[in-house]
TrEMBL record:
Belongs to the AHA1 family. Residues 23-157 form the Activator of Hsp90 ATPase homologue 1/2-like C-terminal domain. This is Activator of Hsp90 ATPase homologue 1/2-like C-terminal domain-containing protein. The lineage of its organism: Bacteria, Pseudomonadati, Spirochaetota, Spirochaetia, Leptospirales.
Length: 162
């Protein structure tokens, strides 16, 4: 029996983005787990990610600071719940590092990766507490935003030295 968690998709509460990208899983993993790489692709342009801290362990910090095109900053504090190298990241904004309650609860995300040789089967699931929060995330542009960010991840990793 696997010790890994598995998201249970609820179409009334959850959003999913699934694709096969032509990037090896090692590069996708590094892009997600190395702050100096994540800041290149994480926020759909013209937004920017201007700061990032990653303590890659369950209970570790996952912090990003996004900046709008108008220069307004949007900090995102979260916590990793599960880290399975080259396979899975689970994080939430309901908790901050050390599993302390954040006072905010927008979503928990499961990002899974499966090696297909030179490509990766990529899946991101955002789970929400209620249909209103899911709807808010849809209206914020989940599919376009997370899809654009994934496109940016792919484009960025193709610029890395081989």
């Amino acid at each position: 029996m696997s010790k890994e968690s598995k998201e249970t998709f609820n179409p009334e509460l959850d959003l999913v983005l699934e694709r096969i990208v032509e990037v090896p899983v090692e590069l996708v993993w590094d892009a997600w787990t190395k702050p100096e790489q994540l800041m290149h692709w994480f926020t759909p342009a013209p937004w920017k990610t201007i700061d990032c801290r990653i303590d890659l362990k369950p209970g570790g910090e996952f912090y990003t600071l996004m900046q709008s095109p108008e220069g307004k900053d949007f900090p995102n504090n979260g916590c990793f719940l599960e880290v399975v190298p080259l396979k899975k990241l689970v994080f939430t904004d309901s908790l901050i590092s050390g599993y302390r309650p954040s006072g905010n609860s927008f979503m928990t995300a499961f990002v899974t990766m499966e090696s297909l040789g030179t490509a990766t089967k990529y899946k991101a699931v955002a789970i929400h507490k209620d249909p209103e929060t899911k709807k808010q995330h849809e209206e914020m542009g989940f599919m376009d935003g997370w899809g654009t960010a994934l496109d940016q991840l792919v484009a960025y990793t193709k610029t890395l030295p081989k």
